[in-house]
Each structure stands twice: as structure tokens, then as C-alpha cells.
């Protein structure tokens, strides 16, 4: 009997031992990830997301938005001082754009159209809601005539209006077609030097072979030839200051192509030899 009781209790102890050794399964969540999310700056990310979404919507529905708010151009306003360009002709050329779409109007095309006019140098355009087109123009400013058919602006650029106009107090510049800017630069330099002796330039020419010649407003013709030009002009100016200017009305021409002086041809002595003034 004692042995049976002992044997019958043995399985219970074994079963109890097995239940104690069995490991319990559990799931743990790492909460440190939430600490990282808390440190993220969500406001800038939210703003960027909203902007991206809004931009995508605008791109998709852009045509519908423009057509819904687009109005007609009902007024074209031109600003800028015009001396040579007739305002009525400019306004007439622009009025054909009245009635076109306020937003759909191609401003670059209108800009090129305005700047193609002979007396217009540049134009800038802007829109003013609800239906006005603003155009500011800068007119060509002729500073010299070029080869008696064209004009030069202050940048040495050649332009030609449909009809020649009388422009007061500008010199005549002559030279090869591709040397317009060079001749203008030379003119400005000589003009400033001659201003010191109260003389102005009426004509400056550059021949194809490279020789320079200028004519003063008082009618004196000065031959400079080729380089060194500045030295030759300096010799003339020196002689002019030392008394030659007092006889300017008697002088027909001056040849400054000599190495050490200038030769003067007098009006009242057309058949005699030139009188030469040595450099001082």
C-alpha cells in the first residue's frame, strides 16, 4: 500500500515539474521610437507637404483657372518721352491687341514688335489688373549720322529710320560698315580734346586704308593720316593755342601727317606753297 501511494504521487510531481519549466512567451514594444518621432519638426514638413499638394492642384487645373479669371485687354497705356517716334503711329500699332486675353497675351511678342520700330530702342511691358497693358519705351537717341544714311546711338549701334529727319548739332561720321563704334569712340575722344580750344567737330572720317580726317565746325579740314594719331592731334592743338587760333578764319586746311610739325594752307594764298609750323 505504501508503495502504491508513493507511485501514484510520482506523476503529479513530474507534471508539476514540467509546468514550472515551461517558459512564458511575451511581446515587448520598443517605445524609444516614439521619443525619436517627438523630436521631428513636423511643422516645416507639413508646410512643404501642403505646398506640394497645392502646386500639383494648380498645375492640373491651371488652364481652367486662367480661362475662368482671364479678361480682355481694354486699355494700352504707353509711357516714355518720344521726340522722333510719332505717338499716334505707335498707339495705332498697339491697339490691335485690344480685346486679347489679359493673361494669355504674349508680352514677349509684343515687346519684340515694339522694339522693331525704327525709333524705339527698348520696351518693357507689365499688366495692371483688370485689363490694362502698360508699356514703357525708350527712344533711340541719335548722337551722330553714319555714312549719311544711318544714325548712331550713344552705344555705337547703327539704326535707320524709314525717313531721314533733321537732328540738330550732331556730327557726320564716315567709315567702313563694321567700324561704326570705333569711329564714334574716336570722335568722343577728339571732341573732348578740341573743347579745350573751343572748337567742335563737324565731320570725322576713316578711310578704308586706315587714314583719319576731321573737319571742324569753323570749316578747317585736318588730315591726321594713320597712327600715331594722338601725337599728331597734340601737335595741332599746341600750335593752335600758341596763336594759330587767332587766324582760324584764314585757314583752309591743315596737314598734321608730318613727324615734327604741321602744314597750313591759307585761304588767301591758294597758289603759294604751304606755310609750315614746326612742332614746339
Automatic annotation (TrEMBL):
PANTHER family attached to this UniProt entry: CELL DIVISION PROTEIN FTSQ
POTRA domain residues: 71-140
Transmembrane segment boundaries: 42-62
Example of a GO cellular component annotation carried by this entry: plasma membrane
Purpose: Essential cell division protein. May link together the upstream cell division proteins, which are predominantly cytoplasmic, with the downstream cell division proteins, which are predominantly periplasmic. May control correct divisome assembly.
Bilayer topology: Single-pass type II membrane protein
Record flagged with keyword Transmembrane helix: yes
Source organism (scientific name): Alkalimarinus sediminis
Main location: membrane
Signal peptide from the UniProt entry: none
UniProt superkingdom: Bacteria
Keywords: Cell cycle, Cell division, Cell inner membrane, Cell membrane, Membrane, Transmembrane, Transmembrane helix
Pfam name, any one: FtsQ_DivIB_C
Family: Belongs to the FtsQ/DivIB family. FtsQ subfamily.
Any one of the GO BP annotations: cell septum assembly
This protein's name: Cell division protein FtsQ
Subunit relationships: Part of a complex composed of FtsB, FtsL and FtsQ.
Compartment annotation: Cell inner membrane; Membrane
